[in-house]
């Protein structure tokens, strides 16, 4: 209790990705003074926004690894968690397809690995079953995983943080940790927004977790960034994909192969590539890979060669595998530093980190519980109410919503049918995330086929109505300003 | 499902140059109850952000600005007992003409006797033309930039590159120059400008802004804000030629790479669209494949001059009023298809036996000293022939067929 008085946090989590936010929410069950520091202008700005949004079952990783253990455990938790947090998700099942008979053995290897890890209900199915499960998919044989699903990774991340915040945790954006000092039994973390002291630190800094560990004097890790580029189709591309379709994973490739995944809104995601890059923030798309993605996807689903794409994006994987070395597998690292007791490093949390996040969070809570007396809060509220989008409501509910709040009658986004009320609610998020991309991820404004052509000028107006001067409107914080003052007029 | 709370003879969706005219046209043709629904807070549509001159040359025989042009149509409109709803968006249209309308004053269903689609168009995006690179702030479509600059008075950058030579891009090149923004150049992948020739002259040449043909942006650079773009020349297949790249430092990239008719609602109603125009397939009365649903303006096909969109609006409004009054025209059975060098000809359908029909058409590429021929597909008979000193893809042209037509036609253009 004295910690609360002198401003020392019990735990500071560094990094507001899916894993960091899951840890924060898990710890918020206990009577602890908590803070999460995020370097970017919003949560989920790193690895958590640039992935396929798949809830993995756990057969793609070697049995016995921490990846497999946390994945399978996370699978058992994530659907319930998404339900509690009101995050849109769907258990779709997944197919890994073998286009030729000789690839069947690879499917059997995957199944055996999955069975060993305790992945439930895996099954090898034939051509007819493939067609039945997904009429758009092709293949001679497939591994069918009925418990795989899809989820919006950034909505999950934001919801985890909001739930933690409801339960008393603090979140600070645009607060990169620049220096760490250990003094008087506390870690003192310096950020541009001030110095914060904590008795325990969870380093969940994703791509930068090696750098952050180094700030604390722990020089044990090296992250190798591997870029994954994606393309995404229009919702109305004419194809309705029911479940993710993956190829047999390439043997010499540290990824899962270029796959096709539906989004909850009906788009189809295509990707990702696997490209080692020099810069951890080099999320550029390249002409060569964009062409390759289309060619690969057309192999899995020829219909895709005729559809148009409305957006490209890229994510960076924080791998522990040196691209010039022989290893192709690096396990998750979840460990307390021997050198700096009380400092926990989460390093190399790439795929299947999204699914594994709730399991990793429990592990971390367990590690903290060893050193601290964790008292469960009787009033912990695990629920974050679901916010149904206006676009998904029926006529009567829409009429009611507009009658209650006229802002629901003002359409801001023509493609995704987002109302002013939804934009305003997003802008009034508890963390002060007010960049254009933060609005986009919370509302879907700008995710439609006009890619913000219509809503951008309108959101710019609303941002100013909400008190943000035009000069401070950014795409994603930092130097990503949209405007350079006003014209003389 | 809720029941419609009110009924109108004609409902016009969209209050731009086509929609305003359509509402007026409907009244002129005797429609009693006309409703005009506009999603913006004011009428006029994109005209409001077009503060430059060049509107009204045909309709008003003088050149005025976009807002002035809108004002004149609105003046006529307010004299009529037309119900106007601004800040209201039609979210859905059913094949039997029930509209779902949302506005600050409420969400409701409306039954229309006839519907005129006049939703206009949207701009092609960076993603549609697949420009590789980073995703920084500072990439705007030309129309969004026009809104931010002209309606919100915001400075969108200091040094700009414009990709595409569509009219809005050309107009914005001049507008930004007026505001002290350096425009490094306009890059166009084709070997001719997409915009009107007068805009190339008045917006680029008069200000010394270079227009680079057969070149495009192959990469966007910059993490937070655009820092530069890489441009390259393209070959005959429009593919970038390796070795011709050059880096142009800039903080802003404007895209003026084409417009797309905004037919989301039309699709919901089941309207059949043309792959050549991106808009509805219509008959000579501008009726779509869904009975009682009419289309005009940029949602039907992209116009280069607002006046033509308005003329089409008047015509669609009149047809809609007649339909609402119970008048039925025999369906269009004669098909008109684009032939050699023709991008599209409109209308695509004609009631057999119609004489004196007029077609709008566009060519695929610039052609000099040529003639356009309308020929019967069965008999080979030439129905119309018109000489042109020069045809440009940027300019919509017209051709009239005097004799009555009983067979499918093809419009073609020979060098």
Descriptive overview:
The complex is a heterodimer of chains A (489) and B (415). With 489 residues, chain A is of the alpha+beta class. Chain A has 3 domains: 223 residues, 3-Layer(bba) Sandwich (FAD/NAD(P)-binding domain); 153 residues, D-Amino Acid Oxidase, Chain A, domain 2; 83 residues, no CATH class. Chain A is 30% helix and 21% strand. In chain A, β10 and β11 form a beta hairpin. In chain A, α2 packs parallel to α6 and α11 packs across α12. Chain A is globular, with a radius of gyration of 23 Å. The N and C termini of chain A lie far apart (58 Å). With 415 residues, chain B is of the alpha/beta class. Chain B folds into 3 domains: 182 residues, FAD/NAD(P)-binding domain; 133 residues, FAD/NAD(P)-binding domain; 81 residues, Immunoglobulin-like (Sandwich), CATH 2.60.40. Chain B has 7 helices and 25 strands. In chain B, the strands form 6 sheets. In chain B, strands 1, 2, 3, 4, 5, 6 and 17 form a 7-stranded mixed sheet that branches. In chain B, α1 links the parallel β1 and β2. In chain B, α1 packs parallel to α2. The longest helix of chain B has 19 residues. The model of chain B has no long low-confidence stretch (mean pLDDT 96). The chains are: A alpha+beta (489), B alpha/beta (415). Chains A and B meet through β18, α10 and α13 of A and β5, β6 and α3 of B.
